[in-house]
Amino acid sequence: ALDSGADALIVSNHGGRQLDGAPSSASVLPAIAQQVDRRCGLLVDGGLRSGIDVFRALAQGADGVLIGRPWVWALAGAGEAGLRALIATWQNELRTTMALAGVTRIADIGPQHLQPG
Cα dist. 65→3, 52, 78, 99 in Å? Predict the structure, then answer.
C-alpha cells in the first residue's frame, strides 16, 4: 500500500468477531506501526469502547481511531443527546488518562505510556 502511494492505512479486523482465530486490531497495531514508521497515516478500528482505549491506540502508534458500534448504540438509545454524551465522555476519559500519564499533548502519547507485557 505504501509503495502504491497510500496516504493512510486502516488496521481493522472486520469479521474478527466471527472468526475465532483472527487477531485483534490492538494486538497487531504495534507491529504495523513499526513497519509503517510514520510514512503515512495510520488509523485503527475495532474494539474501541472508551477514551482510555483511544489513549492506548495512540500509544501503540495509531494517528487516529475509528469507531463503529458505540456511536450507533448511543444514537439509537438516546438520539443526538446520547451521541453528544458519548463524545463528551470519551473526551473526558482521554483528558483524564492523559493527565494521569503526565501528557499534555496528544502528539506526546507514545509506547512509553503503556505497561510492557
Answer: 23, 12, 23, 20
